[in-house]
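Person: Show me a sequence?

Helper:
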Amino acid sequence: MSREARIERLLEFLTRSPTPWHAVAAMAERLEAAGFRRLDETHPWQLAPGERVYVTRNDSSIIALQLPAAGLSALRMIGAHTDSPGLRLKPNAAQTAAGWLQLGVEVYGGALLAPWFDRDLGIAGRMHVRHPDGRLEGVLLTVDRAVAIVPSLAIHLDREANNGRVINAQTEMAPVLLQGGDAPDLERLLAGWLAEQHGLDGVEILDFELAFHDTQPPARVGVAGELIAGARLDNLLSCFIGLEALLESDGSQGAVLVANDHEEVGSASACGAQGPFLGDVLRRVNAQLGEAGDEGFIRLVQASRMISCDNAHALHPNFRDKHDAAHGPALNGGPVIKVNANQRYATNSATAALFRDLCREAEVPVQTFVTRADMGCGSTIGPITATELGVPTLDVGVPQWAMHSIRETAGSQDVEHLTRALVAFVNRAELA
């Protein structure tokens, strides 16, 4: 499959996925086009060996399953997350100052705030409406043109701006939307956008979950196109690569792709990695196709392996001292095995050895990341999934710069590197 075609699909996916709900909708569309059948958690399931199915929860988390034709004994699991740090609208968002309608925001996750200033911002998310006949409906909203901005304060009025000044998210981050506007204008705008996109006239807006997003499209960067720059690479890049690997696999083995919401805020939700979503789905699948009972389920989980994919910190040319000298992953240097002795990553020597062998088989380079001993370490869905489910797990990721910025950067070659390694994983007959 063409590497260039894969990059184009990635750029399209990033553009279509300004929020987790949009990302799941885009993934579901590709799965259905590839022959996956949608399941409903509220209905009985009838599963057949060799079938391919998927299920969503909260419309922001998704699990796709490739069921083996020859009996369910082990699963090759790929994990990622659909959410990214950013600015989300408060419920009563409208506020006015100096003759402008602004929108109050909450900071979702550990966002790097400074890059949000002076960006062309659109609005996207999920809304729930009541139709004139009383019917309730949830719809996606995508305002992909620049309708708002968070203007910086001029250096002349803040001489300390370049000296590490603290940014106050409550008082300094409210985007400017409309001159002379007020709260009814926001309601009018939202209703107009719904009518424009969905033909919904005369509906009552009951509630919403909306976020700002950068309208600058993702792009290839560098003289030779070495880089990919765009919003939400952490962690839509892993969602895309996991989906590509599943669709490109030969279909011979049992496989799972799980993309959870809420990783950036701790994963403690009904659809997060700390919640029961994956366990619920696997128990229902095992009850029909595997060895029945608790013992059968435990046997299935322990025979399976999980590769948790979440981007890694690449060595920054301007801040090389922020990495351990022996563990500075390079962009386009291959996927990164993430290690932490305090279990912030779930990798152990057995799961790392499996991944190194997969990379050898796929003929891709592999790297290792360990944070400096005098710095804190982030985490992923890996340790959480391993704790909740008990499945042997490995943490890997594509190296990137500017994690949690409004615009992040990764290596274009690494998309192919990790995809090939994961295809080898999904096709692998023996996991031990």
